[in-house]
Structure formats: C-alpha cells, structure tokens
Amino acid sequence: MPYSALEKKLRLVPESEFDLVSRFLDFILSGNSKAPTAKKASAKSPKKLYRQPGILKGKIWMAEDFDETPVY
Phi then psi for 32, rounded to 5 degrees? Predict the structure, then answer.
C-alpha cells in the first residue's frame, strides 16, 4: 500500500480515535505483532483437565417411569 493511500485513510480517522491509532502503531513498531510460528504454537501443550468424580451429583435425574411404554 502506498504511503499516500495510508495517509488518506489516516485523515478519515476521527480525532477521538487518535490515541487508539497511536497505541496500535506503537504495538506494531515494537515488534510484538509477529504471529507465533507453528513450532512455538505446537510446543505449548494445552492445559490438562482432570476428572472430578461426583461433580454432577444431584444435577442429573431420571423419571421413575422411564422404562414404561408411553400411553397416549
């Protein structure tokens, strides 16, 4: 994108949003905007969740007549 096109877009930004644009540019210029590589992303293992027996106790119920044939 040519600099002049970017400058035109910047002129359309309301003054109330200048702080946000400035912080975004600082973020990009700081070098933190690089996406993690596939190697780094795969190196992180997801947080392991452990089972907790009895966690649903009292929350699940079954009707007394569950096995009976419905009568219409």
Answer: -85, -5
